[in-house]
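Lab notebook: predicted structure, single chain.

Context: the supervisor wants predicted structures on file for every construct in the current expression panel, including those that have not yet been purified. This is the next one on the list. No modifications to the sequence; it matches the entry in the shared construct table.
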Amino acid sequence: MAELTSFSYRPRISLIHKIDARFKLLFIVIIGFLSLKASLPSVLLLSVFVVYGLVRIGISIWQVVRDLYIFIFFLAFVFAIRAFSAGGAVFITIFEMGLTYEGLIEGSLVCLRIILMILLGLLFTSTTRIAEVKAAIDWIFKPLPFISGSRVSTMTGLMMRFIPVILEQARETASAQKARSIENRKNPVYRMVKFSVPLIERIFYNAGRISMAMEARCYSDMRTGQKLSSTMNDWITLIVILLIGIISVLFL
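Prediction complete. Output recorded below exactly as produced.
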């Protein structure tokens, strides 16, 4: 049986699971905009709330790091670029590049904003069923002309369903390479090529199988979606998030 990844839906009886999917999307937008104007302590405060939500629904932070370990190298690269490119008084020189205090703050802030959005996405996908996501996106795009909300929601649902499959395939490919002692190869480019080529091949193979299965079943985006309804808890949560965001931006 395949192990659950960080992006897999986890059925629980919690307040986050009960929130309307439309409100969850609105929360992501609000927190995303607030993080652009927030300082480093404010982003840290928002991240603490999101991490607490992940822990409450049973997601281990170590599992998140394990599933997204490749992304850590990207964050390190972004941090280095921002840290060495910002102006200010240089206190360390590495390879004729000056590292400043302002650069450290700016690099940390940029990386924390990216991490915050990733954690928000994890919290959303782990507490929201695919049917609810499709219904929410269809509701959002329904008033817009020349845009098929049902088609956009169907593509989004397929993408969310396919992300855990890709992570599981990446884990299986890494285990197969480890069994063949691929780590004994000193060339990192060779190891990366041997990892990415079979992974991409399996991803396209499974995507083709899913496409053929949908065509064989005459699947169409014109389907009856799940009905969504907001409750008082949704509006109370919205007010609380707005208050936390305003306090973190104005007073931190």
